[in-house]
């Protein structure tokens, strides 16, 4: 079998690596890939958004399965076009991907399906959103516990958590006035700020059967102690003790099953990865957002632990045969991913800085360094994005997994490299 993975981040490196371990898979291509996928697979110089070129490549190379990694090509309808061309593809249709592509659509669907989530208001104009804040919180000094979200895709950065009126009005201005997130800010949502710990529960579905994966915990804020601006994710670990069996059953019954049914009723049947971003509140789990693909960096520790053949899972989902699959097998050991980022991320950063120590890090037991924002320049690996590497490790317990991951991090160097030092500390 030949597989094409679409995308070039850490998630796609992890997918290509794991799919390549299948005895059924002869070759894995990645479009466009990065310096890491060039080692574990074969890179193809095609942008993830270049639909005609991806379809032409899949046809001419007789690709048996296409796996679409990032959200942008999913929302843009790449799966629809590939399937129309007769190419088996794993991922949701453009209509189903609206679950991530529009927060307004998602929140309205959650409300209609009676799935627990924060109360919200949607706005098309910044002036109306600002007036809402001023009317609801007339005292400038009073707390304003809200979250302001750009409606569309913003690479995980279009969510601004606020505690004061000044912060809320500034967030509205950034989204609607400054257009910091471009067209993603054509609409925005203001929702109540939920209190609790966050968890990520991912499931693979073919629209009928749902296979839930072990819960993970992402670290969105840039700095230690969950301080600083939101990022695409600075690290994750799996499993997370805050989601026990009872909580997982509650998530399946109150979130995952209802959303699959709701999408079917909306005539947007969902197949692919359903990623529920949850806040575990005193009143129970509530949905913060849905993503329609493997999380990055959650994908990396999840796939490190997966023992079942990933190709078998994705092929079964794409063919609507998940019900025929045996229960998934997992390594009992926890895993942890530490994201190493470029200086300045999540704001502007310099590219082209030479990275050293990768081989020494990869040589450490139970460690795999997944590349995200890297490329080759003159035979050397250089940084080419904000989140550059996902240093992932396993251990007999979460403390040992953390020890291995940070031992590998210490081996890697480039000018301005940094990471959070507290990934998984919440698990203690």
Task: Describe what you observe in this structure.
Pathway: Purine metabolism; IMP biosynthesis via de novo pathway; N(1)-(5-phospho-D-ribosyl)glycinamide from 5-phospho-alpha-D-ribose 1-diphosphate: step 2/2. Its cofactor is Mg(2+); Mn(2+). The chain starts with a strand and ends in a 17-residue tail after the last helix. A hairpin with a 3-residue loop joins strand 13 and strand 14 (227-230). The protein has four domains: 2-93, Rossmann fold; 125-186, 2-Layer Sandwich (Dna Ligase, domain 1); 197-324, ATP-grasp fold, B domain (D-amino Acid Aminotransferase, Chain A, domain 1); 335-427, Alpha-Beta Complex (Glycinamide Ribonucleotide Synthetase, Chain A, domain 4), CATH 3.90.600.10. Strands 3-2-1-4-5 form a five-stranded parallel sheet, with helices on both faces. A five-stranded antiparallel sheet has the order 12-15-18-22-19. A four-stranded antiparallel sheet has the order 6-9-7-8, sandwiched between helices. Helix 1 (10-20) packs parallel to helix 11 and helix 8 runs antiparallel to helix 9. The chain contains 14 helices and 22 strands. It has 428 residues and is of the alpha+beta class. 32% of the residues lie in helices and 27% in strands. The longest helix is centred in the middle third of the chain and has 21 residues, at 245-265.
């Amino acid at each position: 079998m030949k597989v094409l993975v679409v995308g070039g981040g850490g998630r796609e490196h992890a997918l290509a690596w794991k799919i390549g371990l299948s005895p059924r898979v002869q070759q894995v291509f990645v479009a466009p890939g990065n310096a890491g996928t060039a080692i574990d697979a074969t890179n193809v110089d095609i942008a993830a958004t270049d639909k005609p070129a991806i379809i032409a490549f899949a046809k001419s190379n007789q690709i048996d399965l296409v796996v679409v990694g990032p959200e942008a090509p999913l929302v843009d309808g790449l799966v629809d076009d590939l399937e129309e061309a007769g190419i088996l593809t794993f991922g949701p249709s453009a209509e189903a991907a609206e679950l991530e592509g529009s927060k307004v659509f998602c929140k309205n669907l959650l409300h209609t399906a009676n799935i627990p989530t924060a109360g919200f208001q949607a706005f098309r104009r910044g002036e109306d959103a600002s007036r809402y804040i001023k009317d609801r919180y007339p005292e400038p000094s009073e707390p304003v516990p809200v979250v302001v979200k750009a409606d569309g895709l913003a690479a995980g950065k279009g969510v601004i958590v606020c505690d004061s009126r000044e912060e809320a009005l500034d967030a509205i201005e950034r989204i609607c006035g400054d257009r910091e997130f471009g067209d993603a800010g054509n609409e925005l949502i203001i929702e109540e700020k939920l209190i609790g710990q966050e968890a990520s529960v991912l499931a693979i579905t073919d629209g009928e059967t749902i296979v839930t994966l072990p819960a993970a915990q992402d670290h969105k804020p840039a700095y230690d102690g969950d301080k600083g601006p939101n990022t695409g994710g600075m690290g994750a670990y799996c499993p997370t003790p805050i989601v026990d069996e009872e909580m997982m059953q509650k998530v399946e019954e109150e979130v995952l099953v209802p959303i699959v049914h709701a999408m079917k009723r909306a005539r947007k049947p969902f197949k692919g990865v359903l990623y529920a971003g949850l806040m575990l509140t005193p009143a129970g789990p509530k949905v913060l957002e849905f993503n329609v693909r493997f999380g990055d960096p959650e994908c990396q520790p999840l796939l490190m632990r997966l023992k079942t053949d990933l190709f078998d899972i994705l092929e079964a989902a794409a063919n609507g045969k998940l019900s025929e699959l045996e229960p998934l097998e997992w390594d009992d050991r926890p895993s942890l991913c530490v994201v190493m980022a470029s200086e300045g991320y999540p704001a502007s950063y310099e590219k082209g800085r030479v990275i050293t120590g990768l081989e020494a890090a990869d040589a450490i037991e139970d460690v795999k360094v997944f590349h995200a924002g890297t490329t080759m320049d003159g035979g050397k690996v250089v940084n080419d994005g904000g989140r550059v590497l996902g240093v992932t490790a396993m251990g007999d317990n979460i403390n040992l997994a953390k020890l291995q991951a940070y031992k590998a991090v210490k081996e890697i160097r480039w000018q301005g490299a940094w990471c959070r030092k507290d990934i998984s500390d919440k698990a203690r």
